[in-house]
Design brief:
alpha+beta
Length: about 130
């Protein structure tokens, strides 16, 4: 009987020691990331007179501009242009995610007055360094 009590105490002590060892492990350092962003500026100037672009800063801090189509043409809003821009943006996102980048944040903004305006969207990505 005394042997069973002694074995139980030793087992409980060993279990408590293991819990303490694994519970008080030093926190690991936060993971470092490389960040990358691209922005889209889409014009809502009537008559197709605005300029719309995708602006990308590559790894060497060189700026790459890709043309996007304006939301408006001479006849009003051009939904084919909107769909085309969406396709180009999603293609860029798909390319970056295939390269291991994770989309972490999308921020939008609008600036407009009576007849002119822009939509700006920023896409922020990260990748473990």
């Amino acid at each position: 009987m005394e042997l069973n009590i002694r074995s139980s105490i030793i087992g409980a002590t060993l279990a408590a020691a293991l819990v303490a060892i694994f519970s008080f492990k030093a926190p690991s350092a936060p993971e470092a990331y490389t960040w990358r962003q691209f922005s889209t500026i889409e014009s809502v100037v009537p008559g197709g007179m605005g300029r719309s672009r995708m602006i990308i800063s590559d790894q060497a801090d060189q700026t790459i501009e890709k043309d996007l189509l304006n939301f408006y043409s001479l006849t009003g809003i051009n939904f084919k242009n909107v769909a085309n821009n969406d396709r180009l943006i999603v293609d860029n996102i798909n390319t970056w995610t295939a390269e291991g980048w994770e989309l972490t944040n999308v921020t939008t903004g609008v600036q407009s007055n009576d007849n002119n305006g822009i939509f700006i969207t920023r896409y922020l990505f990260r990748k473990p360094a």
